[in-house]
């Protein structure tokens, strides 16, 4: 299981606001809930699942702004793919919280 942080920035839209694009990209995540788990944050989205599924979803997400008029899209991804034990978003947060006690 892998965890991916993805940030998609539509460029060439004529406005600094990107909320409409974020909402449309979020629909891809909602349609993929059977394969992945996701968490929307104010600056990016975190998704977890099998790496092949995650990369396929990121590809779909990347295309959405183009489909809605963006002339350029910048997508950044960070992949955390740990093979020695199962890592989840929840497990990572719990690990840090335990260390804070």
UniProtKB/TrEMBL annotation:
One of its GO terms (cellular component) is cytosol. Residues 4-97 form the Thiamine-binding protein domain. Signal peptide: none annotated. InterPro entries: MTH1187/YkoF-like, Thiamine_BP, UPF0045_domain. It comes from the Bacteria. SUPFAM superfamilies: MTH1187/YkoF-like. Pfam families: Thiamine_BP (PF01910). NCBIfam families: MTH1187 family thiamine-binding protein. Belongs to the UPF0045 family. PANTHER family: UPF0045 PROTEIN ECM15. This is MTH1187 family thiamine-binding protein.
